[in-house]
Design goal:
By secondary structure, the chain is mostly helical. It has one domain. The chain is built from 20 helices and two strands. The longest helix has 27 residues. The relative contact order is 0.16.
Length: 415
Amino acid sequence: MIEKLLTLVIFIACYSLAMTRKVKIAYTALAAAGALILLGIVTPQAAFFDMIEWNVMGIYWGFMMISIIFMQSGMPAHIAGGLINRVRKEKYALISLCILTAVISSFMANVGTVLMVAPIAIEMAKKLKSSLFPYMVAIAISSNVVTTVTMIADPPALVLAMETGMKFFDFYWFQGKVGLGVITIFGVAAAMLSLLFIFRKMNKKITHVVERGKLDYIPTLVFVFGTLALVIGPYFDISPGLIGVGAGIVSLIVGRKNLKGMMKEFDWDSFLFIGGIFIVVGSIVSVGLLSDFVGLIGGMGISNASVMLAIIIWVSVAASSFIDNVPYTILMIPVCNQLAATMGISPFPFLFGMLIGTGIGGNITPIGATANVYACGMLEKHGYKVKLKEYLKISLPFSILAVMAAHIALQLLWM
């Protein structure tokens, strides 16, 4: 009991301080992780080998390196110029970039997508002499909103597929009904429409044709092959972290003339924060706090399936704002199965709803999803102060509308 209380106090303190961003988030997470280890709540071995998601760390390191050489290649400026030249208002250029982000993120890790699209966003904001803040927040949440569009978009989708035996195309047509991927697309469409309203005042006119400079195609090839490797890697049981590290090493070779600059530009603050926060969240799981949380849901005694579906979806949204979606998904799958069996219905509406909630819910806070952390880290590296209130103005309506649309579709098609 004491272990649970101490872990909960450290968890709340860590997240509260990280959300204020008054202290470097890396210091906050590493201090919390260190406290958990010193108190004996987790062992150093378990923290380092079991709790830290090295695949995520490998992807981040490698694709941040790709992002650095890609930015210097001239290609982001070329793409940004192409988008700007095809629209007449800034808001449409930004929406186009968000749609591009969502499409790419449907087939690869969200973090990798953000790191690849970020240089384009930076160039667009620079060319239009606009604030980078809405650009980075928008691409981060756009990368997360598609977490269940495909089986390979995000680890929880893969976890569900492995646990239920679903195949790639089952996400689109399953048991004679529209599948999870199509249902998610309703949410994505609502989210993108919300951005049109959120950015309605970004009416800066694009009256000139942006010139596109010289290109270095080698970083672009590294970018393309790195992306393809992440997409096809799971089919050959190749670790995504290994792909990330390999891509990073190649990037270092390509950018060897500027190794010092690459190391300086790397976002070490976000990288170390994620490492520490994996240990903090892992401790929540290991002491049984997360099991207690999901047990409360199962013990509510609710007999109406539609009401239970709503509870599962929106509790998952709230939980995912603070808790990593992978352990949450693993723990909730048996809970959803048990609840469905008790009610005598198929477990898939509950499973789909849980996955939609935990996938999109991470968008709400700057630390709710790894992609958000990296996007905010990039903003800080460019001199921006990330304020929670300003972040929520974009993320909250975007996320709520996305979940609502998917919830309604799921209710109508499956219940």
